[in-house]
Amino acid sequence: MQVNWGQGGLCDMTMMKVASTVNSDSNQAASNEAAQAAQAATDPTDQQPAKRRLVRALTSRLSFLDLVREDRDANYGYGQVGFRALAVHRLGVWLDSDEPAAWMKRPGNLAYGAASGYIARHYNIELPRTAKIGRRVHIAGQSVRVHDHAVVGDECVLRQGVVLGASDGDPSSFETDAPKLGRRVSVGINSVLVGDITVGDGAAIGPTVAILRDVPAGALVIPPKPRVLNDMSGYVR
């Protein structure tokens, strides 16, 4: 995975090393799991359909790389900030799973820490590894903040300055006080979605909108019409 991180040479090297290791480890593990699934398919005591078990085994080890490739296409290439932020997020999620070998955890987490710090400092994008991010998500710009436990569905678009946050600072409810976006939700520039709210599939949020309640599927939310509060012509020279 050739990623040009500009001045972030450390991020470039760490991501390339992790991707190389993932390739070899994933191929070997996928072969082992496929063989186990094929053997389990003949076991009459297993209640799950054999076809489902085999498909799951063949795809489980490829999920990380497939997601990264989809992110690259959805964000128009390796050089875009959206792809870089999502690639680091995918790495963190993969490291938290049971897929990587034990010896990969420490160097992988060091690489993740360096890369996520670079993303936060240079692009002002915070995309925690604990957030649930769907497939083919497009982050179109910088200064995007996502709640630690937010849910973003497949093919959503988050534009410049979008914030998915909590409605208050109560630690006891922080985990559940997070927005949930359905599939193909479009969020406009500088819009803010806060609290335990749900935005339905296909909804479109306009620019500079504050969302504090649920939005139904397919809805269009736009900011109020600008108002002229005073005639300022007398102040114009």
TrEMBL record:
The keyword Coiled coil does not apply. Keywords: Repeat, Transferase. InterPro entries: Hexapep_transf_CS (IPR018357), Trimer_LpxA-like_sf (IPR011004). Residues 24-51 are annotated as: Disordered. PROSITE patterns: HEXAPEP_TRANSFERASES (PS00101). It comes from the Bacteria. Residues 24-48 have a biased composition (Low complexity). This is Serine acetyltransferase.
